[in-house]
Amino acid sequence: MSTHTTEHRTSQAALDAVATVNTGTFIDGQWSEAASGARFDVLNPATEEVIATVADGGPEDAGVPSKPPGGFRKNGPPLHRANAVKSCAARMT
Q1: Domain boundaries, the chain
Q2: What does the DSSP assignment read for 9-74?
């Protein structure tokens, strides 16, 4: 029986690629930090190494956007738009 173990590490190329990705929240067409300033670590599941730290958006980040998201008609039923926004916010909590 072999006692040889292979240590798995995230490649530098993968870490470099992850470093180019925006790690904020994308809300209302722009990137920003979470309102709370909170962040959390993202782990490579194969190695359990931290490969990124990203914004931890919460309910306070899910406020009503200043303009309707794509696909919403400007003159559409307000109740329909409000329910869609509430549904998205509920999924974030």
Answers
A1: 12-92
A2: ---HHHHHHHHTS--SEEETTEEE--TT--EEEEE-TTT--EEEEEE---GGGGSPPSSPPTT--T
Distance CA 91, CA 53 (A): 21
The region, left, alpha or beta by phi > 0 then psi within -120 to 50, assigned to residue 29 is: left
pLDDT at 44 over 70: yes
Around Cβ 62, how many Cβ atoms within 10 Å? Answer: 19
Question: Which of the four pLDDT bands, split at 50, 70 and 90, describes residue 90?
Answer: confident
